[in-house]
Amino acid sequence: MTTIRRDEIVDVTIKSVRLVGEDGPSGCVVIADEHNNCYPLPHQAAIKRATPQHWPPTAGEIWEDGHGRKWFAQQREGGLRLIPVYLGEDDPLLVELPQHLLDYSGPLRRIYGEEAPF
């Protein structure tokens, strides 16, 4: 492994942290760890959403996967599941855990409340 020395320019990745706001006039982004400790990040920090906006789904919402298929969020005995809105004659009834659908058919976006063609 290469030794990284003080004053070198490096890229740092911090996964799955909560964005809590901006640090006043400096405009630095502030993140929080699992203990709710907050840390400002500099302007150079690249920020990318780890989960879709409005995640996780709640019962009654409609979501669209990365292939354009629409899913209805329904509370079931084992927890929340996503069920296809449309099924063809030969399509099996798919019932997916939200995280499974995100991992394998993402990206997902919530479309409930938007004007939909159905």
Quickly describe the structure.
By secondary structure, the protein is mainly β. Helices cover 7% and strands 28% of the residues.
Question: What this model shows, in words?
Answer:
It is a single chain. By secondary structure, the chain is mostly beta strands. 7% of the residues lie in helices and 28% in strands. The protein is built from one helix and seven strands; from the N terminus they run ββββββαβ. The strands form two sheets. It has a four-stranded antiparallel β-sheet, with no helix packed on it. The longest helix is centred in the C-terminal third of the chain and has 8 residues, at 98-105. The chain is elongated, with a radius of gyration of 20 Å.
What is the strand and helix layout of this fold?
Blueprint: E1 18-23, E2 28-32, E3 38-41, E4 62-64, E5 70-76, E6 79-84, H1 98-105, E7 109-110
Radius of gyration: 20 Å
The percentage of residues in β strands lies in 25-35%
Q: How confident is the prediction overall: mean pLDDT?
A: 82
Give the terminus-to-terminus CA distance: 56 Å
Instruction: Tell me the overall shape.
Output: elongated
Q: Give the helices and strands as they follow along the chain.
A: EEEEEEHE
List descriptors.
single chain, 118 residues, three-stranded antiparallel sheet, 1 helix, mainly beta, 7 strands, four-stranded antiparallel sheet
